[in-house]
Write a structure and sequence with these properties.
Length: 357
């Protein structure tokens, strides 16, 4: 009897081809699109991984592939774990990654639970990553076949249970190959562009969204200070800034300056030179370690500090049960609280956590 897999279908080319590949492999495939924020006024926006076009395009693909298709409502989970979290992190002067939270709590935890309830054996997505089982029995994420599309960074927080019940069929292919497959089988999403922005803030105006979403008073104007603590200007509120930022500071100091630190407790934004943005160490919490049941006291790894970071070698040391310190061999630019640090070794993910400082 064939295994049943629920494929999260965003209406994009990757998840559409994932559904086709799994059907070709003999699985009983069920297509599902997650409704997560579309009741908002911004639902008129058509793009992104979960805009209005997602349901229309995914339903068309499901009809063409002759697979059952459903729309599932996960608005409550998305609001709590992604939208509220995003706004609160910015209020604290941090820069969150909402896609990581969405993957962990919505695309996996909520969807997997619902899928198991209806009798599925697995869930699947169109992510560019591979799931591997090590000799010790633990599941880890392996990098995809194409480095420029690899999405393992945003998936580091998946649990062993989630990984053991997940299929990622597009991880073995390049984006070009996936688009070609879609064209060959006649899928109308073959040339659909990739989404780039945060789906629930399509206009990219984070500050306006946070003001609306928060429902309470936000931190107002405060002081820009230099590395010595001297006041050099006024900022418009810490939610408008992130570490390493240069544009939009509106400071005329006769030289380029960058945000080097945000201090929410005093409502201060510290600025300095580009060189001041570099540091060789960070502390991270909320560690999810995949490779072993118990994380080693110390280990060397390639650590990525943001999605587009190429990764850098360093030493990871456990400070407490849920806290690590990472010391890089070379200083890294704009290490940002709220972002994730993800540890790699031999092209697979060891684990990761949330940067604290």
């Amino acid at each position: 009897m064939s295994k049943t897999v629920v494929v999260g279908m965003s209406g994009g080319v990757d998840s559409s081809v994932a559904a086709w590949l799994l059907k070709e492999q003999g699985y009983h495939v069920i297509g599902v699109t997650m409704q997560i924020w579309q009741e908002d006024a911004s639902a008129e926006y058509e793009g992104g991984c979960c805009g209005l076009s997602a349901v229309t395009d995914a339903r068309r693909v499901a009809q063409m592939l002759d697979i059952p298709y459903y729309v599932m409502n996960f608005r409550q989970q998305f609001k709590q774990h992604v939208m509220d979290y995003f706004a609160e992190e910015y209020r604290k002067g941090r820069t969150p990654n909402p896609c990581i939270a969405c993957n962990r709590y919505v695309k996996w935890e909520a969807l997997l639970h619902r899928s198991m309830e209806i009798g599925a054996d697995y869930i699947a997505t169109g992510h560019y990553a591979r799931i591997q089982q090590l000799e010790n029995g633990r599941y880890v994420l392996g990098k995809s076949a194409t480095a420029d599309k690899d999405q393992t960074y945003a998936l580091y927080s998946l649990t062993q249970e989630q990984l053991s019940r997940t299929l990622m069929p597009v991880g073995d292919y390049t984006k070009q190959e996936i688009r070609q497959m879609a064209a060959d089988i006649g899928l109308n999403v073959a040339d659909k562009p990739d989404s780039q922005e945060i789906c629930f803030i399509p206009d990219k105006d984070y500050a306006r969204y946070i003001k609306r979403q928060s429902g309470r008073e936000l931190p107002g104007e405060g002081n820009f200070v230099d590395q010595d603590g001297n006041v050099v200007g006024r900022h418009k509120g810490i939610i408008h800034y992130t570490i390493g930022q240069r544009k939009g500071l509106n400071l005329s100091l006769g030289k380029p300056v960058f945000v080097t630190e945000i201090r929410p407790e005093s409502n201060v934004v510290v600025i300095g030179s580009n060189q001041d943005c570099f540091t060789n160490a960070l502390t991270a919490k909320q560690i999810n370690y995949m490779a072993e049941e118990h994380m080693p006291d110390s280990f060397r790894a390639i650590a990525k500090i943001r999605y587009a970071h190429s990764g850098a070698e360093g030493l990871v040391e456990r400070v407490s049960k849920d806290t690590v310190k990472v010391t890089f061999d070379e200083p890294q630019r704009a290490i940002t609280p709220g972002q994730a640090v993800v540890f790699y070794q031999d092209d697979f993910v060891l684990g990761g956590g949330v940067i604290e400082k």
